[in-house]
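> example.struct
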């Protein structure tokens, strides 16, 4: 049985050598996206647990309505992963007026974003 505790324990185990610094789960927070409480909780606890300020967070997701609209409302920069293209049914249509978002970045896949992040770190180290 996957309880909240077992789920958290599972996430603290390295996956392919990657360790998570913090895990904030909707079940623990008590709200689900697009509820602003979910985002405010993450901002508060990332600050307390990791000393990460709001302006250092880049919310990265696919869904415009569930992720990028509330991210903007709480003052987060966001990166849209456009799986399935600009008008993906899951991601949303950026031209719809309901999607009042300001995207800092756009990528077609997480792999494409990872490459851009890697290149940026390489440029910083030169």
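> example.seq
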């Amino acid at each position: 049985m996957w309880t909240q505790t077992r789920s958290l324990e599972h996430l603290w185990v390295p996956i392919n050598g990657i360790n998570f610094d913090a895990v904030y789960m909707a079940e623990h927070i008590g709200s689900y996206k697009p509820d602003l409480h979910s985002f405010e909780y993450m901002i508060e606890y990332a600050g307390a647990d990791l000393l990460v300020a709001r302006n250092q967070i880049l919310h990265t997701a696919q869904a415009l309505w569930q992720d990028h609209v509330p991210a903007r409302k709480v003052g987060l920069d966001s990166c849209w992963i456009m799986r399935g293209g600009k008008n993906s049914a899951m991601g949303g249509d950026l031209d719809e007026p309901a999607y009042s978002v300001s995207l800092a970045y756009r990528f077609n896949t997480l792999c494409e974003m990872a490459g851009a992040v890697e290149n940026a770190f390489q440029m910083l180290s030169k």
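> remarks
The chain has one domain: 4-124.
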